[in-house]
Amino acid sequence: xxxxxxxxxxxxxxxxxxxxxxxxxxxxxxxxxxxxxxxxxxxxxxxxxxxxxxxxxxxxxxxxxxxxxxxxxxxxxxxxxxxxxxxxxxxxxxxxxxxxxxxxxxxxxxxxxxxxxxxxxxxxxxxxxxxxxxxxxxxxxxxxxxxxxxxxxxxxxxxxxxxxxxxxxxxxxxxxxxxxxxxxxxxxxxxxxxxxxxxxxxxxxxxxxxxxxxxxxxxxxxxxxxxxxxxxxxxxxxxxxxxxxxxxxxxxxxxxxxxxxxxxxxxxxxxxxxxxxxxxxxxxxxxxxxxxxxxxxxxxxxxxxxxxxxxxxxxxxxxxxxxxxxxxxxxxxxxxxxxxxxxxxxxxxxxxxxxxxxxxxxxxxxxxxxxxxxxxxxxxxxxxxxxxxxxxxxxxxxxxxxxxxxxxxxxxxxxxxxxxxxxxxxxxxxxxxxxxxxxxxxxxxxxxxxxxxxxxxxxxxxxxxxxxxxxxxxxxxxxxxxxxxxxxxxxxxxxxxxxxxxxxxxxxxxxxxxxxxxxxxxxxxxxxxxxxxxxxxxxxxxxxxxxxxxxxxxxxxxxxxxxxxxxxxxxxxxxxxxxxxxxxxxxxxxxxxxxxxxxxxxxxxxxxxxxxxxxxxxxxxxxxxxxxxxxxxxxxxxxxxxxxxxxxxxxxxxxxxxxxxxxxxx
Length: 666
Fold this sequence. Notes:
Blueprint: H1 12-29, H2 31-36, E1 41-42, H3 47-65, E2 71-72, E3 81-82, H4 90-95, H5 97-103, H6 105-128, H7 135-146, H8 149-156, H9 160-163, H10 167-181, H11 186-201, H12 205-229, H13 231-265, E4 296-297, E5 300-301, H14 302-312, H15 328-340, H16 345-360, H17 390-427, H18 438-463, E6 472-473, H19 478-482, E7 492-495, H20 507-512, E8 518-519, H21 536-546, H22 557-570, E9 574-578, H23 592-603, E10 608-610, E11 613-616, H24 630-639, H25 647-655
Parallel strand pairs: 7-8, 7-9
Antiparallel strand pairs: 1-6, 2-3, 4-5, 9-11, 10-11
């Protein structure tokens, strides 16, 4: 697996040059952010990207106020939610805390998103120097890994936890050192691996589980090969590897004992599947995802996400490929290179691991079978979105590409050397035998780079429409900028649209406002109706009222009563419906008029107008709800659509003359 390298990794200048070039490339990817203002634009201040804004602000806020980094009642008040059971990124949030504290969470997310491709590429650059002699080959492998479809598509949708793949090559290097090279002390390498595992847990526990499966497959492949080739050598290596891996297990177990307990049994932990709406095995790949430019996540297509983005929020650029996309160029070069240099064991190892990972990533269930069907029913494992095994496929592809580019250069150079050796006896230049002129070295280098271009050209062509990534202004309603920051402590807000896993637009408002209030509802896995417990009926009505793609709820006594009971349990003190005229569509839900009418019916009273919003400030003492027939409710909306001017008129229409008898329905 390991070939001695003349590169002698560890020299700072090469990392500065490579890292600088990767950073320039990442700035190009994020040019619209840095030219438009990193505190005012991002791919979307909504959905999962908006929750990343919240995650970064929470860590900064918790550090400054002595709160638990892993648990918060600032969403889902008063029960709170477990951040480890959420798709939070505490490791990234802590690293970015100085930026978040000084420049705000939107800037923190944008800085992190800019650094992630560069750091992931630099990590692969470091790994490849263990196996290649030519630094540009290592650079190409880093480019393939850090700027892959897997990384860039995840970033486009705001999934920092999945895009941050910088630790995986470092783990691979530790495994190589323990199992194959065995030059460094096993205890030292084991400690490093244990620390990397711990940090990755706080970046993405899902990717850590995927990496653990990939590590087990790697060890099985290495042991099987060594047992067949040289059993004595295998036995001699076992003690060193066992000491290192044992140390890694001990370090990770000590450091993760409390966090793992907190995840599986701590406050507000989630029983069953983390995402209760997912079907195990359903979000896997189709084979075409690896070379087709049309992206799919199981039954979900990138085109469908693009159509929903204007209403629910999301990335607004051209339709993206699948995160699993490798492209026909990469596939062709890897296959041809492995056949041509079929004696290179590194290519066979990473090729086999990549094929196994690709097989594990396949969609299973509902009549489809794949290797993942053997595992997907197990606790924790069933939470893995198996298409994300593509991160392992991408790592293997990057390593193989780096090795093939390196071998291409050395092969062309060797061919030129043989030609020179045959020519030198007649030219009289015997003193220069074995040395290649600069022109030949240039030809060898250009030939190797041509191989890289053949591989990466299709990837670049598919990703090009989204470079630089499309961004949108970050919009915060006026009330949250001017009034919310002066609220007394302990106020519990219910903002419209109500925060759920399907409607997350209001979540970043709280973070950008630096946590001046508590929030009813929230996003992520805890934000589904199934997770609402005794308040699921009211939670469901509020969700349906906030998501225009769903059927609007009836203003019946049963529905209104469920909402009132839920609001009482959550301790809601204030309801805020921002005026939608200046807000993007994904922040408007069903519109201001609908929000005013809905909450007027729920709270039995008209709101007051404050700083561009309609506000109910004393929810605990609100009058009885006023059920309204559907036809009358719709008529009020149709006749008083001009809000804010007629907000009070909408409320009066709903409250007067159209109430149903107690127990009536819409």
